[in-house]
Design a protein that fits this description.
GO terms for molecular function: serine-type D-Ala-D-Ala carboxypeptidase activity. The chain has 3 domains: 26-60; 72-133 and 281-286 and 313-319 and 330-452, Beta-lactamase, CATH 3.40.710.10; 139-277, D-tyrosyl-trna(Tyr) Deacylase, Chain: A, CATH 3.50.80. The chain is built from 12 helices and 10 strands. The chain has helices at 3-17, 29-49, 72-83, 120-132, 163-179, 236-250, 280-290, 293-306, 313-326, 350-360, 370-373, 436-452, and strands at 93-98, 104-108, 139-145, 150-154, 184-190, 254-262, 270-276, 399-406, 409-417, 423-431. The chain has a 5-stranded antiparallel β-sheet with strand order 2-1-10-9-8, with helices on both faces. Strands 6-5-4-3-7 form a 5-stranded mixed β-sheet, covered by helices on one side. Helix 6 (236-250) links the parallel strand 5 (184-190) and strand 6 (254-262).
Length: 456
C-alpha cells in the first residue's frame, strides 16, 4: 500500500461519509473533541493576544450525495466478475445501495439468507441504538443488605468493567460504609439481571467469548488483553466478585467469609456506589471496530430487557426481530441466532444489511450514527487494520466495513466512498469458502472496486 495515497483515501472517506462519529476528518471521536477543544483554546488565546484572526473550520464533511448518481448497469459490470471469484465458494450473495438516494445499484440473491458471521453485529448495533438511545449506559452497582450485613455487587451487563473500575467502586463503597460507621461486612454478588448464565452454542471454554453473565471483569480475560481471542476464567462473575472483595478489604473494610456468595439483593437494599459504562454509542463503536463478541451479547441483552424479553438467546431473537420489524427492515429469510454472529445457524440477507447501513447514515436518525462510524476503516483500524494491502489496496481509507469469518463463511458489509463523494452501502456474504485468506482478498477487491469505480 502506498502510505500517501492511503492517507489521502482516509481523508476523502472521512469527508464523504459525512457522519458525526469516531472518524470525523480521520480522527476518533474523543481525539477529535480533544483536538477541537485545544484548537478553541488556542484560537481564543490568539484573539486575546491580537496575533492572528481565528480561522473557520476547513474541509467540511460532504453529505454523501456529491457527484452524479452511479449507473446500476455499470456497478453490475464491475462487481459481477469479482463476486464470481471461485474463492467465494460459488454462492456469494450481495447488494449495493446508494445511501443518499436509497437506490439499489446491485443485487444478487440479496434476499437469500446466509450465515452472516460477525456482520450480525451491525444488526445488534442498530437495534440497540434504536431501543436504548446512544446515551444509555450499562450500570454496575453496590448495595447494602442491612439485614444480612452484606455488601452486594450487582452486575448490570457491562463486559468492559476493568480492575480500575472495580477499585473505584470498592473505594466509594468503603467510604459509604464508613459514613454509616460500618467497618465489617460480608460480600455477595447478584447476577439476577439475566435469567441464567449461558455458554454460547460454540461451547464452553472457547477463546472467542466468555460465559455470558451480567457480571464480568474485562470479559473474563485472564491474559490482560482487551480485545480478540483470549483465555477466559471459568466463572467470570465469581472471579469479579472475588476481585472486588479483595479491593474492598484493601480500602479498609473488614471483609468476612472466605469468598463472596451468590445472592439476589433485596429490593430495599441501600445503594452504596455505582459505576456506569461509556455511552452506548461508544460501546457500539468498540463492538464493531474490534468485533467484540462479549460486548455484542451484552448489548443485545440490554435491548431484550428494554423490549420486555428475557436476557437470553431466545429473548435476544425476539427483541431484535421485533425491533427490525418496527424499523421497517426486510426480514424475509432472516433468523437471529445470537448477537455476535458466532452461531452458524443465524441467517441474514444482503438486502437487510445494506438497509441497516443506509438507515444508520440517515441524517434524520443521528442517534443511529455510531452503527456506521464504528466500522473498521480499511487498512487502518480494527479488524481491517491488516487488510487492503493486496488487490484491495485501492480501498484503503475509502472502505469501512464489518468483517465476518467462520470456517467456510466469509462476509463483509459496510460503506465505500466513491471518487466523487458518493457513499455506497454494500454487503457481500459468501458460504462454502475453502480459503479464508482467498475469500477475504476477493471481498476486499469487490469493496475496493466500488470505492474506485466511476460507474457511469
Amino acid at each position: 500500500m502506498a502510505i500517501g495515497s492511503a492517507a489521502a483515501g482516509l481523508a476523502i472517506s472521512a469527508g464523504a461519509v459525512a457522519l458525526a462519529g469516531p472518524w470525523d476528518a480521520g480522527q476518533r471521536t474523543a481525539e477529535r473533541d480533544q483536538a477541537a477543544d485545544l484548537e478553541r483554546k488556542r484560537a481564543d488565546a490568539e484573539r486575546v493576544a491580537g496575533t492572528v484572526p481565528a480561522a473557520a473550520p476547513v474541509l467540511p464533511p460532504l453529505d454523501g450525495g456529491a457527484g452524479r448518481p452511479l449507473s446500476a448497469a455499470a456497478v453490475e459490470r464491475t462487481l459481477a466478475p469479482l463476486l464470481a471469484d471461485p474463492a467465494l465458494g460459488g454462492q456469494a450473495t450481495g447488494a449495493v445501495v446508494d445511501v443518499a438516494t436509497g437506490e439499489a445499484l446491485y443485487t444478487v440473491d440479496a434476499r437469500s439468507g446466509r450465515a452472516p458471521a460477525s456482520t450480525t453485529k451491525s444488526v445488534t448495533a442498530i437495534t440497540a441504538l434504536d431501543a436504548l438511545g446512544p446515551e444509555h449506559r450499562l450500570t454496575t452497582e453496590v448495595v447494602w443488605d442491612a439485614e444480612n450485613e452484606r455488601v452486594v455487587l450487582v452486575g448490570g451487563g457491562d463486559t468492559t468493567l476493568t480492575a480500575s473500575n472495580l477499585e473505584g467502586l470498592a473505594a466509594r463503597t468503603a467510604e459509604a460504609l464508613a459514613a454509616q460507621d460500618v467497618r465489617t461486612a460480608r460480600v455477595a454478588y447478584d447476577i439476577s439481571r439475566y435469567p441464567r448464565e449461558q455458554h454460547h452454542p460454540i461451547g464452553a471454554g472457547n477463546t472467542n467469548i466468555a460465559t455470558i453473565t451480567p457480571l464480568q471483569l474485562n470479559a473474563g480475560r485472564t491474559d490482560g488483553s482487551t480485545h480478540g481471542p483470549a483465555p477466559r476464567t471459568a466463572d467470570p462473575a465469581a472471579e469479579a466478585a472475588r476481585t472486588f472483595a479483595g479491593l474492598l478489604a484493601e480500602a479498609g473494610v473488614d471483609v468476612q467469609g472466605r469468598s463472596p456468595g451468590r445472592h439476589t439483593a433485596p429490593e430495599d437494599a441501600e445503594p452504596l456506589a455505582v459505576h456506569r459504562s461509556a455511552p452506548l454509542s461508544s460501546l457500539v463503536e468498540r463492538m464493531l471496530t474490534y468485533s467484540d463478541n462479549d460486548l455484542a451479547e451484552a448489548i443485545a441483552r440490554a435491548t431484550a430487557i428494554a423490549g420486555g424479553e428475557a436476557a437470553d438467546f431466545r429473548g435476544v431473537d425476539r427483541a431484535l426481530t421485533a425491533r427490525l420489524e418496527k424499523l421497517g427492515l426486510p426480514l424475509g429469510d432472516v433468523r437471529i441466532a445470537d448477537a455476535s454472529g458466532l452461531d452458524r445457524d443465524g441467517r441474514l440477507t444482503a438486502a437487510l444489511l445494506t438497509r441497516v447501513l443506509a438507515l444508520a447514515a440517515d441524517p434524520e436518525r443521528p442517534e443511529l450514527r455510531s452503527a456506521l462510524t464504528g466500522l473498521p476503516v480499511a487498512g487502518f483500524t480494527g479488524t481491517l487494520t491488516a487488510r487492503y494491502d493486496g488487490s484491495g489496496g485501492a480501498g484503503a481509507g475509502l472502505v469501512r466495513a464489518k468483517t465476518g469469518t467462520l470456517t467456510g463463511v466469509n462476509t463483509l458489509a459496510g460503506t465505500a466512498a466513491t471518487p466523487d463523494g458518493r457513499v455506497l452501502a454494500f454487503a457481500f456474504l459468501a458460504s462454502e469458502t475453502t480459503s479464508a485468506d482467498g475469500a477475504q482478498d476477493a471481498l476486499d477487491a469487490a469493496a475496493a472496486a466500488l470505492a474506485t469505480c466511476a460507474c457511469r
